[in-house]
């Protein structure tokens, strides 16, 4: 078992200045642009953003899963002191499984259709732990039981197509957990699933995380999923971090207009039927042709001239009343980590400030934004 | 839950489905009970939300209403008209009034067609085509269908026969001397030079036939295997025509070779040589001309079939000629074919342009309704759009024929939250603007609550609860509804997690539980739920539940006893 002492000050994963560029026929596409964050042992990070915001590319850059040709990734990714970016293929193979593991969105696409489930689950163990076929099988059986597969003795000899979507995702999780990784990256693990199954899968991931003291990166486009299940959240837009805060702070005191817009566009069960949803006007930006200033400005109801001219830096909220203590359900050890409490945002007119209210008024007056807060005229 | 009964139906509904049953045959003679007696109705201007887990039959219910496929039993009435009894052509006339929007916007739009044609399609398929289809075209289509069915079954044997025939032919060529063949004098190999020209020609034809057969079979297989909804009419026609052409050419050629190999030509050959061939060609030419005279969409496959049949005859014709003339005739017929194809193509294009012009104002109008700029979008193809925009195109396509009812099958499930909000607002606006009546199928309860006037919860092919959304979400009456609600992720870190989580998976629809179908996962299940299927009944005004122990209601002693007892035990 890995070192379980959660009080270790050093972060498990440290990402700095990560920049991933795809060289496309129409020019370079910077999918991830200067992302920085760190994750301590046993902590849970949520990464939220729309399709194309770079959240999946970021996770693949960290895992070093991107193709070699036409993609360049620069920056520092340090996993427990190991520089991920400098590792060769062979060393990566040793990292994947016992150190970092990943769960993808599409469970059917992640499984080998012509290999029995038991073999797929046990494969990692045979490679990394040198287990015999028999030992790997019995370990796989245990794993299947752990992830809640009914009748594991029968299922172990079945093929992925014989299982339902929820069961398949459980298998993928079992494979990821097989070598007891220290970090699990779950990339939209429940997007292809029903609500009821989604809840089961998220509960399963959380239970396993707590039991194994794993760190978790949960990537999703749904703020509802990360709300109760993470300690800290990163909101991404156009390949950048636009807001980063402890979960409860983010929901109670969001600063970035994009986070606010994303939050408000979710239909909530507590709203009345036929309640008007607040939408984010316009389209996500063309990644090969990004606007000059703040990347969200063309869709932002607060945007002023300054926002179109200059890109705001990621700055920290002045700490008047730190909300650290209110984090619910954080890692078992409960050891405070100074780095996790930071609330960063990237905006000149942060939500909830008088300047933002003023900017909004001005935009309504100039006809750029409707009363409901939707951008109706784009000035490009 | 999962009960039967029609207590929730209203007399004045626009669309009313009663006791729908859909069963599919499964391997081993078993049956999938996809829907077992679902009754739904829709008042004009109402949105009915249909919720449930994957595999509960909500999509099948939507499709059964559209008669895609027809339900095993039950009735569907649209404005008093019974749909289950209509034949194919009449159903087609009803479809403009009953449209559908699918989950995956990109794959429900044909990537090879332009937006203007995609959106205009329902206008031509459904509104006019039925009357414009000539008797000839219908007949050709039927023959085509028959052939296709036949070929589907015979594809493998035909290919084997074709291969055997070509082997036999080559053996025949090799085994006989040129003199012997010349002595036969039939195929134009009376002279050695002619034989030399003749052999490559036939070999080439055979090769071309074989290639056409391979292509053709691929196309036919594609056409057969692709889900029907994904295949546009044109694609289907072209594929069936090309497939047919390939198969006809090769089987024709193979049959000819076999015939040529084993017989020394008696009556048939003589008949063909002495004008029979000309007669056949003339008949085909008349058919061709008739179908070209009206080259509307429905006739396209007919034209193609006829043309390909003509090419086959040409093979016979050319093969039967003597020596040097053969080459000349071959070239000449190729030229004629090319011209004919070009002519047909031109007529087809002219017709298409006329249709485009006719449809343009309407297409522009609906594109503007759904918030797409027609000038930008009309000539682009679906894959050039983002998911949200493509879903807008699907909505435009559904709106173009002024439908009375639109069935939306998970229209926002594959979209990002921000885009989802745009589409939900758009549907709401269009509903207010045009008085649309919607069936909204989704597994996300928050989404369903947002759009619906009435919500029906389904489980394993049965209805659980039908109610107004606000009441249902405040106070779910069915245990299943309650569990579904508990599973929704709340965008609120303080919200309670893990309360009343639903366990297990949906039972197999091949072997549904007795009594109430939900009992195997229900926390309140009692003996009565195993023995007796609950009936849909009204527990409060406008609230209908199929449960022996509903969680809400003033209906009483039954409820109090039944509801509290098992809860206390478990």
Describe the structure.
The complex is a heterodimer of chains A (380) and B (570). Chain A is 31% helix and 19% strand. Chain A has an 8-stranded mixed sheet with strand order 6-7-8-3-9-10-12-11, with helices on both faces. A 4-stranded antiparallel sheet of chain A has the order 2-1-4-5. In chain A, strand 4 and strand 5 (82-83) form a beta hairpin. Chain A folds into 2 domains: 13-99 and 181-278 and 313-344, Rossmann fold (3-Layer(aba) Sandwich); 107-180, no CATH class. Chain A has 13 helices and 12 strands. Chain B has 2 domains: 15-111 and 383-569, Rossmann fold (3-Layer(aba) Sandwich); 134-352, no CATH class. Chain B is 55% helix and 12% strand. Chain B contains 18 helices and 12 strands. Chain B has helices spanning 58-65, 88-94, 115-132, 135-175, 178-184, 192-225, 233-262, 267-293, 300-319, 323-369, 374-377, 387-399, 417-434, 445-451, 469-474, 479-486, 527-531, 557-569; strands at 15-25, 31-42, 47-51, 73-78, 81-82, 98-101, 405-409, 437-442, 454-459, 462-467, 537-540, 543-545. The two termini of chain B are 18 Å apart. Mean pLDDT of chain B is 72; it is low at 129-136, 174-179, 186-199, 223-233, 261-267, 294-299 and 555-570. The interface between A and B is large, with 49 and 50 residues.
Write the layout of secondary structure elements.
The complex is a heterodimer of chains A (380) and B (570).
Chain A: E1 13-24, E2 27-39, E3 44-48, H1 55-63, E4 71-79, E5 82-83, H2 89-95, E6 100-103, H3 107-110, H4 117-129, H5 133-146, H6 152-155, H7 165-177, E7 183-187, H8 195-212, E8 215-220, H9 223-227, E9 232-237, E10 240-246, H10 247-252, H11 257-264, H12 305-309, E11 315-316, E12 344-345, H13 354-366
Parallel strand pairs in A: 3-8, 3-9, 6-7, 7-8
Antiparallel strand pairs in A: 1-2, 1-4, 4-5, 9-10, 10-12, 11-12
Chain B: E1 15-25, E2 31-42, E3 47-51, H1 58-65, E4 73-78, E5 81-82, H2 88-94, E6 98-101, H3 115-132, H4 135-175, H5 178-184, H6 192-225, H7 233-262, H8 267-293, H9 300-319, H10 323-369, H11 374-377, H12 387-399, E7 405-409, H13 417-434, E8 437-442, H14 445-451, E9 454-459, E10 462-467, H15 469-474, H16 479-486, H17 527-531, E11 537-540, E12 543-545, H18 557-569
Parallel strand pairs in B: 3-8, 3-9, 6-7, 7-8
Antiparallel strand pairs in B: 1-2, 1-4, 4-5, 9-10, 10-12, 11-12
Helix pairs in contact in B: 2-3, 3-10, 3-12, 4-6, 4-7, 4-9, 6-7, 6-10, 7-9, 8-9, 9-10, 10-12, 12-13
């Amino acid at each position: 078992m890995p070192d379980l002492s959660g009080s270790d000050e050093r972060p498990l994963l440290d990402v700095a200045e990560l920049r991933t560029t795809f060289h496309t026929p129409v020019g370079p596409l910077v999918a991830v642009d200067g992302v920085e964050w760190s994750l301590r042992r046993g902590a849970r990070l949520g990464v939220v953003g729309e399709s194309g915001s770079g959240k999946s590319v970021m996770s693949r850059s960290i895992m070093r899963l991107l193709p070699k040709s036409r993609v360049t990734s620069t920056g520092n990714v340090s996993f427990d002191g190991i520089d991920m970016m400098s590792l060769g293929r062979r060393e990566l193979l040793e990292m994947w499984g016992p150190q970092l593991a990943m769960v993808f969105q599409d469970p059917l696409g992640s499984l080998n259709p012509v290999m029995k489930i038991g073999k797929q689950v046990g494969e990692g163990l045979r490679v990394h732990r040198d287990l015999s076929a028999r030992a790997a099988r019995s370990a796989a059986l245990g794993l299947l039981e752990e992830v809640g597969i009914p009748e594991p003795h029968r299922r172990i000899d079945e093929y992925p197509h014989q299982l339902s979507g929820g069961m398949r995702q459980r298998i993928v999780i079992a494979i990821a957990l097989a070598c007891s990784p220290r970090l699990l990256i779950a990339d939209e693990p429940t997007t292809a699933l029903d609500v009821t199954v989604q809840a089961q899968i998220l509960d399963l991931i959380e239970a396993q995380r707590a039991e194994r003291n794993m760190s978790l990166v949960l990537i999703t486009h749904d703020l509802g999923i990360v709300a109760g299940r993470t300690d800290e959240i990163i909101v991404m837009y156009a390949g950048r971090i636009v807001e980063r805060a402890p979960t409860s702070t983010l929901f109670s005191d969001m600063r970035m207009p994009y986070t606010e817009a994303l939050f408000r566009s979710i239909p909530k069960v507590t709203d009345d039927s036929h309640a008007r949803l607040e939408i984010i006007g316009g389209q996500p930006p063309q990644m090969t042709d990004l606007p000059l200033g703040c990347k969200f400005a063309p869709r932002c109801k607060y945007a002023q001239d300054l926002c179109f001219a200059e890109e705001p830096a990621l700055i920290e909220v002045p700490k008047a009343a730190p909300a650290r203590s209110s984090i619910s359900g954080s890692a078992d050890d409960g050891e405070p980590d100074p780095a996790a409490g930071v609330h960063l945002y990237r905006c000149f007119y942060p939500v909830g400030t008088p300047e933002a209210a003023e900017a909004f008024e001005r935009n309504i007056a100039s006809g750029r934004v409707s009363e409901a807060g939707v951008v109706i005229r784009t000035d490009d | 839950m999962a009960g039967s009964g029609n207590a929730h139906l209203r007399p004045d509904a626009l669309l009313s489905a009663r006791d729908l049953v859909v069963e599919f045959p499964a391997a081993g003679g078993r049956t999938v009970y996809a829907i077992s007696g679902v009754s739904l109705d829709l008042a004009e201007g109402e949105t009915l939300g249909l919720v449930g887990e994957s595999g509960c039959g909500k999509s099948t219910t939507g499709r059964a209403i559209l008669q895609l496929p027809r339900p095993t039993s039950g009735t569907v009435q649209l404005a008093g008209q019974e749909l289950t009894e209509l034949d194919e052509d009449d159903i087609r006339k009803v479809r403009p009034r009953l449209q559908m929007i699918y989950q995956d916007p990109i794959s429900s739009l044909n990537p090879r067609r332009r937006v203007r044609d995609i959106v205009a399609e329902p206008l031509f398929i459904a509104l006019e085509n039925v009357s414009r289809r000539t008797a000839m075209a219908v007949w050709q289509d039927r023959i085509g269908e028959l052939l296709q069915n036949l070929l589907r079954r015979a594809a493998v044997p035909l290919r084997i026969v074709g291969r055997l025939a070509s082997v036999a032919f080559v053996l025949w060529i090799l085994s006989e001397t040129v003199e012997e063949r010349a002595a036969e004098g039939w195929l134009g190999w009376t002279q050695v030079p002619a034989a030399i020209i003749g052999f490559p020609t036939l070999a080439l034809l055979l090769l071309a036939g074989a290639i056409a057969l391979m292509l053709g079979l691929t196309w036919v297989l594609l056409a057969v295997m692709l889900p029907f909804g994904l295949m546009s009419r044109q694609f289907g026609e072209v594929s069936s025509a090309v497939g047919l052409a390939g198969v006809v050419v090769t089987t024709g050629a193979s049959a000819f070779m076999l015939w040529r190999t084993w017989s020394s030509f008696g009556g048939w050959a003589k008949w063909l040589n002495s004008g029979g061939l000309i007669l056949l060609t003339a008949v085909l030419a008349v058919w061709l001309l008739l179908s070209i005279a009206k080259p509307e969409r429905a006739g396209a496959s007919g034209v193609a079939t006829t043309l390909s049949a003509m090419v086959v005859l040409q093979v016979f014709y050319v093969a039967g000629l003597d020596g040097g003339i053969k080459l000349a005739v071959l070239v000449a017929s190729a030229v004629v074919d090319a011209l004919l194809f070009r002519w047909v193509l031109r007529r087809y294009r002219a017709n298409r342009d006329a249709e485009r012009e006719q449809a343009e104002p309407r297409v522009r109008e609906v594109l503007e309704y759904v918030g797409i700029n027609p000038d930008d979008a009309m000539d682009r193809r679906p894959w050039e759009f983002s998911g949200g925009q493509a879903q807008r195109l699907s909505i435009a396509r559904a709106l173009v024929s002024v439908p009375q009812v639109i069935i939306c099958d998970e229209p926002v499930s594959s979209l990002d939250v921000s885009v989802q909000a745009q589409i939900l607002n758009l549907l709401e606006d269009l509903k207010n603007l045009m008085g649309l009546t919607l069936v909204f199928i989704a597994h996300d309860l928050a989404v369903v609550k947002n759009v619906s006037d009435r919500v029906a919860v389904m489980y394993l092919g049965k209805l659980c609860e039908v109610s107004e959304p606000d009441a249902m979400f405040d106070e779910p009456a069915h245990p299943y509804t309650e569990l579904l609600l508990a599973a929704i992720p709340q965008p609120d870190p303080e919200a309670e997690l893990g309360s009343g989580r639903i366990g297990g998976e949906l039972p197999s629809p091949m072997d549904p539980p007795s009594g109430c179908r939900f009992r195997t996962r229900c926390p309140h299940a009692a003996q009565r739920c195993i023995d007796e299927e609950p009936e849909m009944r009204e527990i409060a005004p406008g609230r209908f539940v199929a449960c022996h122990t509903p969680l809400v209601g003033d209906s009483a002693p039954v409820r109090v006893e039944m509801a509290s007892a098992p809860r206390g035990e478990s």
